[in-house]
Please model this.
Amino acid sequence: MSTEIKGPQDLEKEVIKTDLCTLCGACLGLCPYFRVYKGKVVLMDNCNLSQGRCYSFCPRTPSSLDEVNQRTFGAPYPGDSLGTHLQVVMAKSLDKAALAKSQYGGIASTLVALALKKGMIDAAILTKREKELLSSGALARNKRQVLACAGSNYIASPTLEAFHKGAQDSYKSIAAVGIPCQVLALGKMRLNPLEDKNNIEKLSLVIGLFCTWALSYRDFFRFLKKEYAVQKIGKMDIPPPPANVFQMELPEGLKSIPLDLIRPFIRPTCTVCVDMTAEFSDLSVGAVEGLAGWNTVIVRTLRGQELMEEARRARVIEIAELPGANLDHLKEAALLKKKRALENIVKRTGSKENLLYLQGADALRPLWPD
Ligand SMILES: Cc1cc2nc3c(=O)[nH]c(=O)nc-3n(C[C@H](O)[C@H](O)[C@H](O)COP(=O)(O)OP(=O)(O)OC[C@H]3O[C@@H](n4cnc5c(N)ncnc54)[C@H](O)[C@@H]3O)c2cc1C
Model:
C-alpha cells in the first residue's frame, strides 16, 4: 500500500485529538495501550512503536479508496453515488422472530443467522446494546445471539474491537456487520502491509449498514438523561425524511424529538465521511423510504448475491424490485453526502489538494466544491 503507516502517537495526534475518531473500534483490542471509555478512545500510556496496526486500520488515517476498492472488488473506486455493485433490490425477512426484534426488514439479522446455520460462517461480529445506551462489539454464534444484537443504536459503537478479540479464537470464517467507517476499516485491514496480518483472512462476509451519521455518546446521553429515564429507552429510530425526528420507545409510548435538537451530538468526523452506503461490503442494507418493514439491499459481490439467493430458497427472506423513485432518491442522498463531506474537508484543510484522509479518490473530482 502506498499510504504511509505511522504509529499510535501519530494516531492520537492526527485522529483522536482532532476529533476525527469514528469510534469504529479498529484500533482497540490489539494491544494494552488503546482503550475505550464511555464512548472515547484513550491512549493509556506511551507506546513508541513507529508503525502500528492501529494507525494502519483507522478509517481516518490516509486511506486509498482506490486500493480498498481494487482489493474488495478487483475494480477501481468509481466515486459515483452507490459504489461498485451488481444490483439494488428491496427485501424483507419472513422470520417472525427476526422481524419482531430488528430495525426495519430484518435482513441483516436474518442473513447472518442463516449464514451461521448453513455453516458459511462460524461467528459474526455484531453490535450489542448494553447498559445506559452504550454499545460494544459482540460475537454471535447462533440465531439467539444474533437476535440479541438486532436493532440500531444511533450512538457510535467500537464494534471492531470484537473482531480483533474474536479472530484470535478458533473461528475459521467470520462475518461482520457495520456502518461505513467500520467497513472501510475492514477494507484497510485486508490491505495491511505490516507483518502481523491480524487474521483478516478469516473475514469472509461483510454486511454494511447505510449511515448518514452516528452520535457521540457522552453529550447525547447527558441530554437524554435530563428528561428521560434512559434505562427504559427501547427501540430508537430515525424515520426517513420528511419526518425529521429521532424516535424512542418509552414505557409511556413513542417519543419524537426534533432532529435539530439531536444534530449537535453528531460526531464531527461524520461530516467528512463520503460514504453513505458502506461501499466496501458484500451487501449493504438500509431503509426503504415510504415502505416500513422493508430493507433496501445493494448487492455488491457474488458472495453477497449467493447468500441472498440461499435465503430466498430457504424461504427466510422475500426479495422484490426497488421502485425507480426510491433508487433515484437513494442515489441522490448518497451523492449529497459525498458533496457535503468534500466541502467540509476542503473547509477544514483550506485546499482542494489536501483531502484529509482521502487518497486515491480522483474519481471524486467531479464532486469537488467550486
Ligand atoms: C449509526 C447508524 C446510522 C444509520 N443511518 C441510516 C440512514 O441514514 N439511512 C438508512 O437507510 N439506514 C441507516 N442505518 C441502518 C438502519 O438503521 C438498519 O441498521 C438497516 O436498515 C438494517 O436494517 P435491518 O432491519 O436489517 O437490521 P437488523 O436486522 O435489526 O440488524 C441491525 C444490525 O445493526 C447492527 N448495529 C446496531 N447498532 C450499530 C452501531 N451503532 N454500529 C454498528 N452496527 C450496529 C447490529 O449489530 C445488527 O446486526 C443506520 C444504522 C446505524 C447503526
Notes: The mean pLDDT is 96. The radius of gyration is 19 Å.
